[in-house]
Design goal:
The protein is α/β, with parallel strands linked by helices and about 210 residues long. It has a single domain, classed as 3-Layer(aba) Sandwich (Rossmann fold), CATH 3.40.50. The strands form 2 sheets. The protein has a 4-stranded parallel β-sheet with strand order 2-1-3-4, with helices on one face. The chain has a two-stranded parallel ribbon with strand order 5-6. Helix 2 crosses helix 5, helix 3 crosses helix 4 and helix 5 runs antiparallel to helix 6.
Length: about 210
Amino acid sequence: MKLRILTYILFLTTIPAIAKITVATSLTDFASIANSIGGDRVDAFAIAKPTSNPHSVEVLPSYMVKVARARVYVKVGLGLDGWADQIISGSRNTNISVMDASQGIEVLEKPTGKVDASMGDVHPEGNPHYWLDPANAVMIAQNIYRALLAVDPDGSSYYQQRLSIFRNDAKVKSATLKKQMAPLANKAIFTYHSSWPYLPRLLVCELSES
C-alpha cells in the first residue's frame, strides 16, 4: 500500500506544469481583464500604476526588463499610451505579440479637420478612455481572447468559457449600473478631464468638461 502511494506521489511530481502566458498591459484595468479571460493559464501585469496619469508614464529600464519576458502586450491604443512603444522596443523581445485593445470600439469625440496643440487636450484618433464603459470591456475581453488564442491555441476552450462568463457578468453589472445611474438621467455631468463620455451612454446624460 505504501509503495502504491509513493508511486502515485512520484507520478504527480513528474507531470510537467503548464507554463503560464505572461501578458503585459499598459493599464491595470486591462491586466484585470486579461487575468479574467486567461485564468490559470495567464499571468498578467500592468506597467502604469492605478494612480498614474495614463497619458504620460515615465519609461524606466525596469519596465523593459518586465516586458522582455512577456508573450503578449496589450495597448490601450488611440494615441493614449504611445510611451508603451518605447518600452516594447527597449525590451528587445522579438517573441512578443502586440495588440491594440481598441479594435472594434465605437470611438467617440473623433475630431474632424486639422488637430494641433493650440486646441488643448484633443486626441486626434478620438477619446481613448473607452474602457470605462462596461459594454466596451466586453470588446476588450474579446480582443484579449483572440490575442491569447493566437499564442496559446491549446487553451481555446478554456479561454472561450471564461470569455462567456465575463460577458455574462458584464451584462449583469451593466444592468445594475444603469439602475444606479437612473437618477442622473437628463442631468449634466461635469468632469475635470474628458475621461467619461463613454459611460453616460447607459443613460441620456449631458457630459461637460470643466
